[in-house]
Amino acid sequence: MRHFPAFLDLTGRAAPGVGEGGTRGAPLADRFKAAARAALPGLAARRRSADAALTGPAADLAIAGRAAGAAFADARRGAETRLTGVVHLVGAGPGATDLLTLRALRLLGEADVVVYDRLVGEGVLDLARRGAERVFVGKARANHCVPQGEINALIVRLAREGKRVVRLKGGDPFVFGRGGEELEACRAAGVACEVVPGVTAALACAAATGIPLTHRDRARTVTFATGHTRDGRLYLDFAALARPGQTLAVYMGVTTLAALRDGLVAAGLPAGTPAALVERGGTDAQRVLRGTLNSVVARAPVWHTCGPALLLVGDVAAQAEEERLAA
Ligand SMILES: C[S@@+](CC[C@H](N)C(=O)[O-])C[C@H]1O[C@@H](n2cnc3c(N)ncnc32)[C@H](O)[C@@H]1O
């Protein structure tokens, strides 16, 4: 990844310790800086146009030692196309910094503002551009989430101000992340929006516990379900969830585990079906409670601390346990 600040600063000087690319890029940046200052009023717009110029074909030409003039013309074109704001809905993964995608890392390094959730890991946030504004929307005063409508309005407004907005969400934006609503809000407002997938909790928990979500003999279907209630009720198709030969991954279910178990058992799933509750999966602080659907649900209230947790139910959970005992 070549990124503007890695080899030049805004004055056009090569950054300390950079090699030939920076030295050759410096005259280009000098010329670019003068023209950009004349054409663009704000520092943010100038930085963006510099990024566009110095991370694209212009930088390639400069680093290749080709005429800076040709590169500069290209830089101007690039700058003109990138002056409007954009929203990137970025999946931050389960919390572990090294489970971030390379694309997410690049966008964080280019962000003007990062709007982030409660589940985004500290280490991930530290990867944002040093000067980027950070806006926390996970919990506000009195421990209430910022309403979704306000978050939608916020990211649209920031993009309309010409900013590059990274809307950072735990896991994947499109898995119980309300990313769909934010994408719709951007589209309705005519704001460009890109979605960058992240490692969702079910994948991280499965990998970190050795519980495969699918298995040739034990699970030919995997279902992601939410344990979140509306009007105090679980709106789940228990008959479908109780079918054999599948793995169930339940998000946001810690407080409704008993109701979930009762619904599944009433629909025919044996209470002795293997299960695991994974707290802070995929991070250094991961904890796992293994057992059956019944035993896990019974022990969870005492066992669970306050971290995000995911319930995995299905024969695949027994496989991991058998392997663990054998080891
Ligand atoms: C609002 S949902 C967000 C899901 C997220 N978009 C994703 O793709 O993982 C929050 C729920 O995700 C689950 N979750 C998120 N991170 C987790 C982690 N590291 N370990 C276990 N569960 C996690 C928990 O069930 C939590 O209540």
TrEMBL record:
SUPFAM superfamilies in the record: Tetrapyrrole methylase
Highest taxon above the source species: Bacteria
Listed pathway(s): Porphyrin-containing compound metabolism; siroheme biosynthesis; precorrin-2 from uroporphyrinogen III: step 1/1
Name listed for the protein in its UniProt record: uroporphyrinogen-III C-methyltransferase
Residues covered by the Tetrapyrrole methylase domain: 87-295
Lineage: Bacteria, Pseudomonadati, Pseudomonadota, Alphaproteobacteria, Acetobacterales
Keyword Methyltransferase assigned: yes
E.C. no: 2.1.1.107
Signal sequence coordinates: none
Entry's transmembrane regions: none
NCBIfam families: cobA_cysG_Cterm, PRK06136.1
InterPro entries: 4pyrrol_Mease, 4pyrrol_Methylase_sf, 4pyrrole_Mease_sub1, 4pyrrole_Mease_sub2, CobA/CysG_C, Siro_Cobalamin_biosynth, Uropor_MeTrfase_CS
Keywords: Methyltransferase, Porphyrin biosynthesis, S-adenosyl-L-methionine, Transferase
